[in-house]
Amino acid sequence: MKKHLWSACALFLLLTALTAGCSVSIDLTPPPPAGYVRSVSVESVYVRSCPAANCDVRTVVYRGQRVRVYEYDKGWARVSTLDSGATGWMDARYLSGR
């Protein structure tokens, strides 16, 4: 019985030591509403054929370039560029309301 108690205490101490100082940060800022024109807020972003990082790249958009947002899906925005009309999906975190 003492051996099991000692093992449980040792495991608890080990897990406590391993997780000390660890934290998780989640950005809960909602994306801009769909149906509006938004600007790219970072240096450059890929516009992809589907809403995933492993999808084919259709084009690249650059800081300040304006896009129309049609819908959101799990952190991705379906967009079309106002200048060329290229369509696809980009990471919604890189859109600003300006």
TrEMBL record:
Residues 35-98 form the SH3b domain. The keyword Cytoplasm does not apply. Transmembrane segments: none annotated. It comes from the Bacteria. Keywords: Signal. It holds the Pfam family SH3_3. Residues 1-22 form the signal peptide. This is SH3 domain-containing protein.
